[in-house]
Amino acid sequence: MPAPQSKVLLDKQSHGNGTQANAAQKVWDACLDVLKDKLNSQAFKTWFTPISPLHFSDNELTIEVPSQFFYEWIEENYSTQLKQALKDILGSEGRLMYSIVMDRSQNNPVTIELPHQNMPKNGPTENGCSTTVKVSSDRDFLERYRTKFESHLNPKYTFDTLIRGDCNSLAFAASKSVSQNPGQNAFNPLVIYGGVGLGKTHMTQAIGNHVREKSISEYVLYVSSEKFAIDFVNAIQNGNIQEFSAFYRKVDVLIIDDIQFFAGKEKTQEEIFHIFNTLHQSNKQIILSSDRPIKEIRGIEDRLISRFNWGLSADIQPPDYETRKAIIQSKLEQNGVTFDANVIEFIATNVTQNVRELEGCIVKLLAAHSLFNKEIDLSFTKTTLKDIIRIQSKQLSLETIEKAICSYFSITPNDLKGKSKKKEIATGRQIAMYLSKELTDSSLKTIGLHFGGRDHSTVIHGYNTINKKVENSAEMRSQVEELKKRIEIMSI
Ligand SMILES: Nc1ncnc2c1ncn2[C@@H]1O[C@H](COP(=O)(O)OP(=O)(O)OP(=O)(O)O)[C@@H](O)[C@H]1O
Q1: What pTM value is reported for the model?
Q2: Does residue 333 share a domain with residue 289?
Q3: So where does this one cross the membrane (predicted)?
Q4: How many other C-beta atoms can be found within 10 angstroms of the C-beta atom of residue 214?
């Protein structure tokens, strides 16, 4: 957002409450305009439209968010975009306050300020715009956090809803075992590692949920590494560090997600080290997750790494085709819907690396279905998911293949479709037939007709000739691969 707009808005700051609210609305509207361009529409609608601007004065905008969770989510996921938007609108001196509605029944709210992650209290950020949080409550929220114990487990993450496959079988078995006997097994700590969106959080929380459901242990706590680190810094700044340490030492099952975020945070690591020792010595269960094997995390102290290796590390790999299908089926059942088998097959074939993306496809299809009231068939699926799934080959037209061949061999469409037996033309023609059969759904007859009105036996001959050459000749293999790449790019 250009700087001149910020000037206009700043000039409009005023002292009366009504005009402050107006100014706040204008500043916030301008921020929303910037954010709208940077976020996808679902995220924008979910997280930013429920926010109300409260007031704006001395270059400080206060916005009200519906809950602490809301605040944490925005800070964790959108703080960079939000800071940049504020900087665009208010310049580098602009500040943001969150007002969190903790309890609407309370009068006389007390206000405390917590520094934003990785920022000096009230100081400007790297982006030049500072963010602080103002909590309205009858009690200090950290106090609440400790006295009213919350597990922070998502009840949806259970073993029942977690599909087991070759990709996660060791991690699954170990997690089940830990959940039946936390702290009293050889897997302490249990470390689950693997790539993005493969179910680490789901699996570790499934342990916690099982322990709670069966009342095996009382205090089960799930915390992300980032939240742990932020709370730790806050505790130091607010003089609550003893309370903080005591709280974590009380836990029976401690689940820490994404421990790679501890890299480089020395003080936090020291605290974890002491908590780890206390819990381990008292046979309390520690469960950790990481996006890579422990030995590959840089910036974590050796003594901590060695402790993390005391128990069992189990990896989760991207699911295979059958597991992907089973996951889709299970998600559909949870949503009480069914899809055609070929729709499931299409998603399972094309989304291979991230289960969160598989879920994203289902959500998008259901949303589009309810919006347009159209049947979810294969063609609707392909159109709806075209941004997520790069639809390949089978949708290609013969014209695209023709163009790619002509440009590659420097021949004209007439050459390609004509009767010339010149080597590069005849080879180009046969490769065109081969690729048409490999990459499209067109029948042999259609392919023959397209490339010069030939019959289907000519197409089969062309296909077989090239197929054999691809098997036996490295040069032909690389030619065909290069052509496939060009065709893929041309068809996007
Ligand atoms: N095997 C599985 N069966 C069913 N659902 C799964 C499976 N694996 C992952 N999911 C689902 O995929 C989504 C992403 O999983 P989750 O958040 O646990 O991944 P993650 O590995 O912790 O991701 P990140 O690396 O981003 O932290 C969740 O909704 C989860 O329920």
Answers
A1: 0.57
A2: no
A3: none
A4: 10
